[in-house]
Write a structure and sequence with these properties.
- This protein has 353 residues and is α+β, with helices and mostly antiparallel strands.
- It folds into 3 domains: 8-113, Beta-Lactamase (2-Layer Sandwich); 115-189, Signal transduction histidine kinase, dimerisation/phosphotransfer (DHp) domain (Helix Hairpins, Orthogonal Bundle), CATH 1.10.287; 194-353, Heat Shock Protein 90.
- It has helices at 18-26, 45-49, 61-73, 115-152, 157-189, 201-211, 213-218, 237-253, 285-288, 300-305, 312-322, and strands spanning 8-10, 30-35, 39-44, 53-54, 57-58, 77-84, 92-102, 107-113, 197-200, 222-225, 231-235, 260-268, 271-278, 326-332, 336-344, 347-348.
- The chain has a 6-stranded antiparallel beta sheet, with helices on both faces. A 5-stranded mixed beta sheet has the order 10-12-13-15-14.
- It is elongated and about 90 Å long.
- The protein starts with 7 loop residues before the first strand and ends in a 5-residue tail after the last strand.
- Residues 1-6 have low confidence and may be disordered.
- The structure holds adenosine-5'-diphosphate (ADP).
């Protein structure tokens, strides 16, 4: 009887004991068994989607060298490797691996788990919590001062209205901040390439545009997406919508009223670029390097006015990198900006949408 779990690949099942395959498939981490010539004869599903194996080859030269060493010496090896998440961008998968010889037929077993990724997430989170506490203190401090002011002005209805209105806007700011923090922590927790979906770029753009419709209308800004796209990418649909939403919302917020925001897509070298162009205030060269940092804003007062949290672009960068892509920026002050998310293309749909 052959091995039949759907999420594993076995090219020559007869060669390997059923029990070994079942054990490997039930482990938390991923595994590959390599025959002579480093040809994989068994692999779990994640090995391919995490980029360890592509086109039936181990992608990391470092890991390949270790496999050969193990085959030669019969020793056990363990360590850590980094593998790019895609052909572009800074995204990296980090893995802990163990490589061991299987006595039978010169086979080598590679076990891979992403414990180091878990450690990195833990470190990022620790720094992040320190930043958050600082950011939360501002609106909470303002609310506390304003409530004292309301108490002090209880006989003056006009002042009470003024202070209460400001309390409302500080409370909204607090709510937005908490929501963005939840969004960022969700995208940090979840690896979109672990069990990826096929995601339509046309759908992502339309969905994000719908979410921004009310704010565009309220500022008299027309958001246009001219040519539909039939590109499919691999990843998480909700994360990609969130990234697009953040870019469109920024294009609206940092533009004068009655201007235009246009969205388009471009295909080059198996990559799709989604471009969001505005006729807004632009970003100076020195700020262009910093705006993707968490909580960085060019003009904190303006960002406050538009309900900005300073987290939007760091979320976009994180999502693009985690999808094996990148976000880039072209901008000239008082002329406008174009943000571009580039992602590896998975395939094309027969119909454009
Ligand atoms: P915020 O919540 O403040 O908008 P973001 O992380 O989304 O935070 O953006 C960081 C900063 O980058 C913004 O405060 C703003 O100064 C600048 N910025 C972002 N998008 C644009 C844009 N389209 N045009 C001009 N400036 C922008």
């Amino acid at each position: 009887m052959g091995f039949s779990r759907q999420d594993t690949e076995v090219s020559e099942p007869g060669l390997l004991p059923q029990m070994l395959l079942e054990t490997l498939a039930s482990l938390d981490g991923e595994s590959v068994i390599l025959a002579l010539g480093e040809v994989p004869i068994f692999s779990t599903a994640g090995v391919e989607s995490l980029g360890i194996l592509r086109e039936n080859r181990i992608q990391s030269p470092e890991l390949l060298a270790i496999v050969r060493f193990v085959r030669r010496t019969g020793s056990h090896q363990k360590g850590q490797i980094e593998i790019p998440r895609g052909p572009i961008g800074e995204g990296r998968h980090q893995f802990t691996f163990k490589v061991l010889p299987l006595v039978k037929d010169d086979l080598v077993l590679v076990l891979v788990s992403d414990e180091s990724e878990a450690q990195r997430v833990h470190d990022v989170r620790r720094d992040f919590v320190a930043n958050i506490s600082h950011e939360l203190k501002t609106p909470i401090g303002a609310l506390s001062l304003l409530s004292e002011a309301v108490l002090g002005a209880k006989d003056d209805p006009e002042s009470v209205t003024k202070f209460a209105t400001r309390m409302q806007s500080e409370a909204k700011r607090l709510t937005d901040l908490v929501q963005e923090i939840i969004n960022l922590s969700r995208v940090q927790d979840f690896d979109p390439l672990q069990l990826p979906q096929e995601v339509s770029i046309g759908y992502v753009i339309r969905e994000a545009m719908d979410q921004c419709e009310i704010s565009a209308q309220s500022r008299g800004i027309s958001v246009k997406y001219a040519e539909p796209s039939n590109v499919l990418v691999l990843g998480d649909r909700d994360q990609l919508i969130m990234a697009m939403h953040n870019l469109i919302e920024n294009a609206i917020n940092y533009s004068p009223e009655d201007t235009k925001v246009s969205i388009s897509t471009m295909i080059k070298d198996k990559l799709v670029s989604i471009l969001v162009t505005d006729q807004g205030i632009g970003i100076s060269q020195s700020n262009q390097e910093r705006i993707f940092e968490r909580f960085y804003r060019v003009d904190p007062a303006r960002s406050r006015q538009t309900g900005g949290t300073g987290l939007g672009l760091s979320i976009v960068k994180h999502i693009a990198n985690k999808h094996g892509g990148e976000v880039t920026l072209w901008s000239v002050e008082n002329v406008g900006s174009t943000f571009s998310i580039r992602l590896p293309i998975h395939s094309f749909k027969s119909e454009k949408e």
